[in-house]
């Protein structure tokens, strides 16, 4: 045992440096979990996905800046923002956040010299993705509030077949800080495939049904190296006096031939994680194909029927009437979220976008805890025991674990 441990300790330097963790998804931080009306315990919608030292935001409701300051997410590290739809509770915090992130100011007096009027458009821009109207909202909002940004941004719009293929949906001319490289991305087979990709991550999207054009996003991690079990290699390495540096090749899944002809095979790579972030929806079925086998599904659950638990429950309500009312407003119940999680085989379901009647202080308030546990149980009952269901609360981090064995 001691001898094996000694060899493993000597092998560690050859294995650990090649694991490319720098850009892989770390905690998902919920910055806002309210629905249309915020409360003292829930902010408007926003969540942050940390990728090493970088941050991607999904939605940016009112006061997202304040929530960032309450969290451990660094505002200056935000490099991409994905907007699900242009309802105010998902986008009203975007312009103030851009002003803070991009060295913004409230304009200048006539004749004054401000370098922010001469933005270096060659700098890497902060990228914004969203539906038709996102570009017009940002451009018009910055123009009419006389806001100057000291660094560039760019807006990519995900266009539906019913949308105009070209144009900016506004007659307002581009601002100095707006990069001209914004794309109008068209669908292929009813989804937007690989709207962003690099060697570690890719993002695809699909429309989901709400009371306004709405998008769900799927973040997929590239395959990761399989786990090296030193017991499978140490005897052959010792017998042939092979340099430990071959462990780099084995960790990458490659094969190595030793001096005596023995061929060692590295472990097969494993699938990376898949994180699905849905906007508001009463029917996300159009994203099911690319969301299948998600390690983490984030799904709204605006309304719930909680007789005997929620004192505000109406005597005339039933599960069916609450669901019908939620659908009529473009929203979901916990049961609807549970059914969709089961449909796509999600391994973990996190509920968000709660009515203001459901307090977000369930970590310290027993009544709120009972309500949130009951909401989670409604979704759990629809799926069964195969999935972990939880309710989100503001400034809470969830680690998107890779499914065991995948």
From TrEMBL:
Q: Does the keyword tRNA processing apply?
A: yes
Entry-linked InterPro entries: RibonucZ/Hydroxyglut_hydro, RNase_Z/BN
Q: Which cofactor does it need?
A: Zn(2+)
Q: Which GO terms describe its cellular component?
A: nucleus
Q: Which UniProt keywords apply?
A: Endonuclease, Hydrolase, Metal-binding, Nuclease, tRNA processing, Zinc
Q: Which domain of life is it from?
A: Eukaryota
Provide the GO MF annotations for this entry. 3'-tRNA processing endoribonuclease activity; metal ion binding
Q: How does it assemble?
A: Homodimer.
The entry's protein name is Metallo-hydrolase/oxidoreductase
